[in-house]
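Narrative summary of target 7.
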Amino acid sequence: MRSVRFVFRGLALLLGALSATGAILAHGGRFSGHLDVLTHFALIYLAAAAVVLIGAMTAAPGRARLAMALLGGVAAAASLALILPELMRPSPPHAAATAAGQIKVIQFNVSRRDARLEERARWIAQQDPDFLILEESTPAMRAAVLAHLPRHMSCGMTCETVIFTRTAPEKTDRPRRGRYGLGPAIAIVHMAPEDGGYILVGTHYTWPTHVRNHRENTARMLQLIDPLPKGRMIVTGDFNSTPWSFARAREDARNGLERRTRAMPSWPTTFGVPFLPIDHVYAGTELRTVKVERGPNLGSDHYPILAVLALASD
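Modeled conformation, tokenized:
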């Protein structure tokens, strides 16, 4: 029994040390893109801190218990310092469920997987979105959507990031990636004034572990949307970036839009317990949020995100 307690204390101390170190170093993301990678795991540090603190409460009094409490407390405090700004930020104005002028947007990274195509396409058709944005889509996935849901597709059958619209866009842009071929895959459609005048931007950012490439994600996105009117713009996609990343916070402050997703984990679907909110929906100030929710597991490693927006009445 003593050996079991000894091993438990050792593991708890190691877990506490690792989570505290990771959470503290993550704050260096203010200055370093490499350290900013650590911010994405803030929820993991917090969960580990909770385990260590529970262990400290159940352990026998002594130095090990004190060390566990100290490490768990530091990990929890440093993690919460990353997460709380997202939870406490002001919410954009909401619209009632009965508000006029509603539009439904579905964003879904299908992860280049052709599993459960019929189930996916049927669910999307049942939702009957005005705008559907897919990332990492395959020809089979795009064909399945069109078979169940007649829509206009922004990029023929060639682009992985594609936007489906109820009516034909007035203009479609398929911009190249950023400098040196780095940066995000982006699709942009401009709807005609009689169809609401919305500007839809779908995107798929590269992983934050590729720091130079990840910087180009933001640079290219801002370069493309800065000249465009923001009032009825909707930007959505897989940003491979959590809300507690300092890079995400800087982009949020500069893009002139309001993020409508709030700490909504969308990856991975493994075991049904997503822990990284990396799929986001942004919208301009002329649009109010009716609801934003996560869709079901449809065979991708991402959950779809469904947002209902309404035109502001004031």
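The longest helix spans residues 63-88.
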